[in-house]
Write a structure and sequence with these properties.
The structure holds two protein chains of two kinds. Helices cover about 75% and strands about 0% of the residues of chain A. Chain A is mostly helical. Chain B folds into two domains: about 5-100, Ubiquitin-like (UB roll); about 115-130 and about 145-245, Fumarate Reductase Iron-sulfur Protein, Chain B, domain 2, CATH 1.10.1060. Classes of the chains: A mainly alpha, B alpha+beta.
Chain lengths: ~210, ~240
């Protein structure tokens, strides 16, 4: 779970940098070039499909191992406490990792349907730039995305440092360093992602440009 | 002080168990929690009822025998104390106190508040002895151990095996206990020789006993009466990963 989790967080960096191109005021030219490279550059095609396969496998493995651990842990305490003061001893994000995971998964399904399916699998040639502007001009989509990024932030607030603990790397010496780098993952990256739908929602003129 | 106690009563392993309410009328704030239970038990005996069964021995926080869930907290409120070191001054007159046994599949309830913790013993046994022949009594300084390393090993060795880590953990994981036992030996030169076999066997036994998996909530560290740090869990994980190669 730690290894797949860390791989997925690394993917977030690439995904965010690429997606921020949507915000450039160039009618989507830069984003299209980036998009074209990802989908149809003949030299990058095979390596990128390979990485994509690893990415999907990581998501499935990460979710599966999370589910099996959750199931094992349920069996480890069959009789529940009448009074259980777990909230006094632990952080919210740590107690609700499985819950935030479920919400992130739900988000992934909706996100893949809205973007990946339409761009790559539907057979029609539509640009990601246009879809982004169409999708996020709908406030329901925008706020759902923003909410999901907050949830993702919570998931990573627990998950990032947790991965290092599981791998045995969160020693006294490196603990502060890990917690500091973690800020990038649980705060800055989700914030960056949230910026995109919010910006598009409040700048409907860019939608006209896209059309 | 007058207190209302809701205590888990269970006749034996197979009994369903239920909460029974008791009123403790004359509780002094200077009593320890176990002394308070002693007083309640004396009253029960006088009334011809079966006293509440709970584990206890040294009553000074070093044996690890006592342990119960008090108002949802392992060893009750307060940090770095076992149940025997909890005093009634931590409560107020008129309080209701819910007392439950440790809840874990690996710690079946034997009677009332007493649980079977032999799963911990089996993990220890799986760790094995240090089989190296030690010969005669060595000179005090013949094996050099740097002070910080010795301190770290001693911090781990402070574990009294009470089971509060398992009880407090939302997953009933025994990782803090196992990590303390693995750490105290893996850090020292005498224990290093058999570290690979030790960690492999102890982890296998831990899983066999049906303890849950660690999800790094760190509830164990917060409730440990000896305040053993979760950095020992990181060391255990490191030892385990290294043992795979």
């Amino acid at each position: 779970m730690s290894l797949t989790g860390l791989f997925l967080t690394i993917f977030l960096i690439e995904h965010l940098i690429g997606n921020l191109l949507v915000l450039l005021q160039d009618g989507g030219a830069a984003f299209e070039t980036y998009s074209e490279f990802l989908t149809s550059n003949p030299y990058a095609y095979l390596p990128l499909r390979f990485v994509e396969a690893i990415l999907f496998a990581s998501i499935i493995l990460h979710a599966w191992s999370g589910f099996t651990v959750w199931l094992k842990n349920k069996r480890a305490r069959l009789t529940k406490y009448k009074e259980y003061g777990i909230a006094e001893n632990t952080k919210f994000a740590s107690r609700w990792t499985a819950g935030t995971a479920l919400l992130v998964f739900l988000f992934l399904v909706i996100h893949l349907k809205a973007f990946f399916w339409n761009i790559r699998l539907s057979g029609e040639h539509v640009s990601g730039y246009t879809i982004a502007h169409q999708t996020f001009s709908n406030p329901y989509y925008t706020w759902f995305y923003v909410f999901s990024f907050i949830v993702l932030g919570y998931h990573l607030y627990h998950g990032f440092q947790s991965a290092f603990q599981t791998l045995g790397l969160k020693t006294k010496k490196y603990s502060t360093l890990i917690e500091t780098i973690a800020v990038v993952f649980w705060c800055i990256i989700p914030l960056g992602f949230a910026l995109i739908p919010i910006y598009i929602l409040f700048h409907p003129t860019t939608l006209a440009l896209a059309k | 002080m007058k207190l209302t106690l809701k205590v888990w009563r269970q006749k034996d392993r197979n009994d369903e168990g239920r909460f029974v309410e008791y009123i403790a009328n004359e509780v002094s704030p200077d009593m320890s929690f176990l002394e308070m239970l002693d007083v309640v038990n004396t009253d029960l005996v006088k009334k011809g009822e079966t006293p509440i069964v709970f584990d206890h021995d040294c009553r000074e926080g070093i044996c690890g025998s006592c342990g119960m869930m008090i108002n949802g907290r392992a060893h009750g409120p307060g940090k770095g104390i076992a149940t025997c070191q909890l005093h009634m001054r931590s409560f107020s007159d008129g309080d209701q106190i819910v007392i439950e046994p440790w809840r874990s599949t690996a710690f079946p309830v034997l009677k009332d508040l007493m649980v079977d913790r032999t799963s911990f013993d089996r993990i220890m046994r799986a760790g094995g002895y240090t089989s190296a022949k030690t010969g005669g009594i060595p000179d005090g300084n013949s094996i050099l151990v740097p002070k910080p390393v010795a301190d770290e090993a001693f911090d781990a060795a402070a574990c009294i095996g009470c089971g509060a880590c398992v009880a407090a953990c939302p997953n009933s994981s025994a990782m803090l206990f196992v990590s303390a036992k693995v750490s105290q030996l893996a850090l020292l030169p005498q224990g290093k020789a058999e570290r690979v076999e030790r960690v492999t066997r102890m982890i296998a036994q831990m899983d066999e006993e049906k303890f849950g998996s660690c999800s790094n909530t760190y509830a164990c560290e917060a409730e440990c009466p000896k305040q053993i740090s979760v950095t020992h869990i990181a060391r255990l994980n490191r030892e385990f990963v290294a043992a795979q190669f």
